[in-house]
Amino acid sequence: MKRQLFTAALLGASMFTAPLMLNQSAAATRIQTIQLKDMEPNNLKPNMQALGAISPKNFLQIKGSVSRFDKTDVQYFPVLPGTKLFSFTLNARGASWGLYEDTNKNFQVDRADKLVLFNKNGSVQTSSGKRYLLRVNKSATSSSGSYSGSVYTQAVRRSVTVKVHSAKAISRFDAKIRFTKKDRADFFAELYRGNAKFPVSRTNKVNDNNSPTFSKVMSDSIAFDAKSLRYRIQLMDADAGFDDEANISPASSKSLFITYLPEKRQVLGPNGKVIGRSGQRITMQGNSGKRASITFSVNHIDR
Q1: SS3 breakdown of the chain: % helix, strand, coil, rounded to 5?
Q2: Where does the record locate the signal sequence feature (predicted)?
């Protein structure tokens, strides 16, 4: 059985084009460089330790050799969550190679497996849970051969979407002006990460309407492995001088604090209890001051 040399070094670069937010407080993702090197003759099954996992957090470097005493090398690459696509590069001298999808997951290349790349570098669309086998064979005309390469992974891009479908004024927000609608609210909504000062997104404004519907979907780019995301939704009444914030929370604050759990697809309210699931319309309202209600839904999209 093959033994592989594992060397890991943490680099300060990030694989994500969108900011990584885990509970809105995580640092940038660190990439682990993994070097896989064949150390001695092996049989036709790979090392089961699976050191070469294909993941957005890993950059794989592969190196090995074949000879008349060690004609075949096989390396195993499982795909971890968050992986969308990987670029596979291998340079071989005195050897041929093929990358196979281990469709029957028996850790060996056989007729049931799908040949993905053969002696040609390329990119492979993939998903979590798949397995790949790299098989390198010594050329019949060569006494020995060598190979080296790398695997670069593209992460799934995940966005949380918050759609405020509608709002309704329960209290009067402006003074009554005869023969006009100026006493009606000019509502728009904003989405914040936790207690952040600036919103990540906002809806369109609807003028002179106490029961508006909104067309714009608010969104926030997150890391594929973010477990818990805390957001604050504000409903504002636009005024010429200073915008008024409507009370839309059953808790003590005017703003509505929610927590979204992507893997469980649950939406938690200000008290930490489940108030709905992803895609479900949820209605909440304030209990004091300038009161209003909002109907919203939370979901996430992977690209």
Answers
A1: 0, 50, 50
A2: 1-28
Residues comprising the chain, all counted: 303
CB contact at 8 A, 248 and 255: yes
* Pairing state between β 58-67 and 31-37: parallel
**Residue of 42, 49, 58 lying closest to 9 (CA atoms):** 58
List the 218-222 sheet strands across, edge first. Answer: 218-222, 158-169, 292-302, 282-285
State how far the Cα of 34 lies from the Cα of 59, in Å rounded to an integer.
Answer: 6
- Residue 212: CB atoms within 10 Å: 23
- The 10s digit of each residue's pLDDT in 190-249 is 999 999 999 999 999 999 999 999 999 999 998 888 899 999 999 999 987 788 899 999
User: Who's near 192: CB < 8 A, 6+ residues apart?
Assistant: 198, 199, 200, 231, 232, 233, 234, 255
CA-CA distance, 150 to 47, in Å (whole number)? 18
Instruction: Report which residue type is found at 218.
Output: M
pLDDT digits (tens, 9 = 90+) for 121-143: 999 999 989 999 999 999 999 99
